[in-house]
Amino acid sequence: MVAVTAATPGNPPGRQAGAADVIVVGAGLAGLEVARRLAAAGGAGRILVVEAGPDAGREHYRWADEPARADARWLDPAADPHLWQPYRRTDAGYGGIAGLRRRLGGRSLYWGGVALPIEPWALAGSWPDSVVADLTGSWRGGPPLYESVAAQLRQWAGSPAGAAQPSHPLVGREFAEAPKAVRQADQGGRWRAYSPLDDWPDSVELACDSHAVAVQVEAGRVTGLLVERAGERQLLGAGRVVLAAGTVESSRLVLQALHQVDGSAPVELPGLADKVAQGFMAAFDPAQAPPSVKAFAESGRLFVSRADAELRSSVFLRCYLNEHGLLIVDCYCMGEQLPGRAGRVWCEPGAQLPWPTSVAGGLSPADEQLVLAQRRELRRIHRELCLEAGTGGAEPAFESAFGSPDLAERLGAGAAMTTAGSTATYSFPIGSEQHESGTLPLGGALLDEHARVRAVAGLSVAGPATFPRSGAANPALTILALAARLAADLAEELADGAPDGSTGRGPGTC
Ligand SMILES: Cc1cc2nc3c(=O)[nH]c(=O)nc-3n(C[C@H](O)[C@H](O)[C@H](O)COP(=O)(O)OP(=O)(O)OC[C@H]3O[C@@H](n4cnc5c(N)ncnc54)[C@H](O)[C@@H]3O)c2cc1C
């Protein structure tokens, strides 16, 4: 990066005119995919991705580490130096393992690869019709985005071209293997999920260790981005900025930008939603295990029964033999937390940038109802399994409070079980599913249907912050589909109008 002067009162930050035509904030799943797609479309001029964290290697953590160490990196906040919570917590939500992974690649180097579309019942009525049509009907005269992006992921993973998985009936539900954008190593239990870094175009510049402090807005238009690197601040000139810094950081950056246009703009965004996720593990004697479950155990894979509008929860099932010779059934519901006022992001405005940011991650009464409905379904599934096996077994016992503070130990319970009939339960504290979304919904008051911030020309948002509702599905497929859509829209806009001149020196690379 070029030499800059520290930004202090009376000593404005160094200005680098025309640093890029488009700056993308955040080198995670959404930001990298937008940049990659934009570069592929051509004609966008200079694209720069600004990332707060370092280039700490471009490998997925399950590829870089052996399984036990990788488990620790996921489940022990102290085991990953990149875990980052750039906000103040005000309740039990968004602590522990929740948060960003501040490094080049972001959580694209951590995700599990489960790629499911948001269910029709969650899209209908809440998402703008034009976006639903692009995702599920037809996009730009071709196949719908969900179909083309899923095909791209299958191709990357080397899976067969056909999408449909055979369905297996169990406990009154239909289960199919969960679609995963994953490549397996030949041995050692290592695997990796898709990251846009795997197919990274040289033409896109990456600036690591560069924290986006604020979007610069003049007369209602984006003119650049204020970044801090090694304690020094610099204004990077650009006419277009895409915020893809994760839901909470993107929310802060939008709130700050809105205030530059209107000093009375709100400083709080409701709608922050993660997932309601909980499950049980049960041990069976393999000789007596339900025959249908044995078939699942042989494959060792993850199966899913898709969510309906009533339970609003996917049911996942994984069966395996533990080292004590018991067949473990791990069954969990992952359901939709409804966006509302219980989850929110807000800032304390002031002269000092960045504004201090807080989150609340509570359960609304509707979420509490979902917790109870999931528990009824999980107990029913366990009962049915025991009936089929002709064995008894302790009914899964859930604590009254939702969100296991000792999640890591509970997730390890199945592997440690020594007695058939044992059960254990777990629930993910809000935020720890890492599916936080919903503060800047597409087609809402702040964002139009193309993810442009209505009040600030040149500013767009990518990532799950833009989901009007998240349904029960894991978010990545939708993140990637919307990234493709945003990149194509941006490329078209830039081709229509002259992008800002790009005259300055590059800001340095990772
Ligand atoms: C262990 C794990 C398993 C998961 N499994 C799945 C799964 O199977 N399926 C699924 O759909 N989802 C899964 N997820 C969730 C998924 O990874 C996230 O939903 C997704 O990565 C979010 O994408 P994003 O681009 O919004 O955020 P991120 O990928 O987190 O990227 C945000 C980036 O922005 C950077 N940043 C933030 N603030 C600033 C700033 N001010 N300046 C500059 N840079 C900034 C961050 O450092 C980060 O690199 C999983 C997540 C984890 C952690």
N→C terminal distance: 10 Å
Q: Give the low-pLDDT segments.
A: 1-11, 498-507
What characteristic shape results from the CA principal axes? globular
Question: Which molecules other than protein and nucleic acid are bound?
Answer: flavin-adenine dinucleotide
Strand coverage percent: 15-25%
CATH superfamily of the largest domain: FAD/NAD(P)-binding domain
CATH architecture of the largest domain: 3-Layer(bba) Sandwich
Describe this structure in words.
- With 510 residues, the chain is α/β, with parallel strands linked by helices.
- The chain has two domains: 19-164 and 179-273 and 342-361 and 434-496, 3-Layer(bba) Sandwich (FAD/NAD(P)-binding domain), CATH 3.50.50; 275-340 and 365-427.
- It is built from twelve helices and 24 strands.
- It has helices spanning 29-41, 61-64, 67-75, 120-123, 129-137, 145-157, 247-261, 291-299, 365-389, 407-411, 413-416, 476-496; strands at residues 14-16, 22-25, 47-50, 83-84, 88-89, 100-101, 167-170, 173-177, 182-184, 191-193, 205-207, 211-218, 221-229, 232-237, 240-243, 268-270, 275-284, 302-305, 313-321, 327-336, 343-347, 357-361, 423-427, 459-461.
- The chain has a seven-stranded antiparallel sheet.
- Strand 13 and strand 14 form a beta hairpin.
- Helix 1 packs parallel to helix 12 (476-496) and helix 6 (145-157) packs across helix 12.
- The longest helix is centred in the last third of the chain and has 25 residues, at 365-389.
- It is globular and about 70 Å long.
- The structure holds flavin-adenine dinucleotide.
- This is Choline dehydrogenase-like flavoprotein.
- Belongs to the GMC oxidoreductase family.
- Residues 432-483 form the Glucose-methanol-choline oxidoreductase C-terminal domain.
- Its cofactor is FAD.
